[in-house]
């Protein structure tokens, strides 16, 4: 029997509120995180991701409060990320009720954090969030990715909310975080984030083919077909979306019914 594909609403949190932008910019308020997460719980979401997008120390208390409230009220797995820079951060989030912690910028700066977290809490608790952007200048040492128009490019890992390039090849980094112990990869393409033109299929399918851990496609959902494309052509194990759910354009249940009718295995 095929493993069921997961639908995961993502809640970007700033100062205790859910916000949503485009290409990581232009944030607007989308509501209370626990209220939204509760709605998705009722709709049949497989998981919910909370991301503290400002991740400054003064906001950590607000995020912990959100997780504690969500853990008390919801009955689905919670993944939490943003500003996770130490084992103590991971432990605090897991104690507050998170099931998984997501590591992004701090994993680039200190790859041992991924390994240490996996060793202490288990691979299943560690998600490596990988934010990428296209780079059309192919050079030695990068992995070419075939685009739909026949051109080739490579994808560079970016950090600090997409504001800083790293020079690191996304495919190679995905394989490295797997070797370090990450149990899952949350892949977001800056080009498609919030644009609603679909997931970045070339890099999603490339990384999914290169690693043996689940890949979550993120960034770009605007239609039901985009979920289908993410699973079938992007080879993703899960698809994550935000604004289409937050602003009532579609429900998780509607998406799952659509996918089931198209032959994609989902839990309804």
UniProtKB/TrEMBL annotation:
Principal location: cytoplasm
Its job: IGPS catalyzes the conversion of PRFAR and glutamine to IGP, AICAR and glutamate. The HisF subunit catalyzes the cyclization activity that produces IGP and AICAR from PRFAR using the ammonia provided by the HisH subunit.
PANTHER family on file: IMIDAZOLE GLYCEROL PHOSPHATE SYNTHASE HISHF (PTHR21235:SF2), IMIDAZOLE GLYCEROL PHOSPHATE SYNTHASE SUBUNIT HISF/H IGP SYNTHASE SUBUNIT HISF/H (PTHR21235)
Gene3D superfamilies in the cross-refs: Aldolase class I
Protein's recorded name: Imidazole glycerol phosphate synthase subunit HisF
Keywords: Amino-acid biosynthesis, Cytoplasm, Histidine biosynthesis, Lyase
CDD domains: HisF
GO CC term, one of those recorded: cytoplasm
Subcellular location: Cytoplasm
Residue ranges the record marks as coiled coil: none
An example molecular function term from Gene Ontology annotations: lyase activity
Any single biological process term in GO: L-histidine biosynthetic process
Subunit structure: Heterodimer of HisH and HisF.
């Amino acid at each position: 029997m095929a493993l069921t594909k997961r639908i995961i609403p993502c809640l970007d949190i700033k100062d205790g509120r859910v916000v949503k932008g485009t290409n990581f910019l232009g944030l607007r308020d989308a509501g209370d995180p626990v209220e939204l997460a509760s709605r998705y719980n009722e709709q049949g979401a497989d998981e919910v991701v909370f991301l503290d997008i400002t991740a400054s120390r003064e906001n950590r208390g607000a995020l912990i409060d959100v997780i504690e409230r969500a853990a008390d009220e919801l009955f689905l797995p919670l993944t939490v990320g943003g500003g996770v820079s130490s084992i103590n951060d991971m432990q605090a989030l897991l104690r507050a009720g998170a099931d998984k912690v997501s590591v992004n910028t701090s994993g680039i700066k200190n790859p041992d954090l991924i390994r240490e977290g996996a060793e202490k809490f288990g691979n299943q608790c560690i998600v490596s969030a990988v934010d990428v952007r296209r780079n059309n200048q192919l050079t030695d040492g990068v992995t070419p990715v075939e685009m739909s128009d026949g051109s080739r490019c490579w994808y560079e890992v970016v950090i600090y909310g997409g504001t800083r390039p790293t020079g690191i090849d996304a495919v190679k980094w995905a394989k490295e975080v797997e070797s370090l112990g990450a149990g899952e990869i949350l892949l977001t393409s800056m080009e498609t984030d919030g644009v609603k033109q679909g997931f970045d299929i070339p890099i999603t399918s490339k990384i999914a083919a290169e690693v043996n851990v689940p890949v979550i496609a993120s960034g770009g959902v605007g239609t039901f077909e985009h979920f289908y494309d993410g699973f079938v052509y992007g080879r993703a194990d899960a698809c994550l979306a935000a604004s289409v759910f937050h602003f009532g354009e579609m429900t998780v249940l509607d998406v799952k019914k659509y996918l089931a009718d198209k032959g994609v295995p989902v839990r309804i």
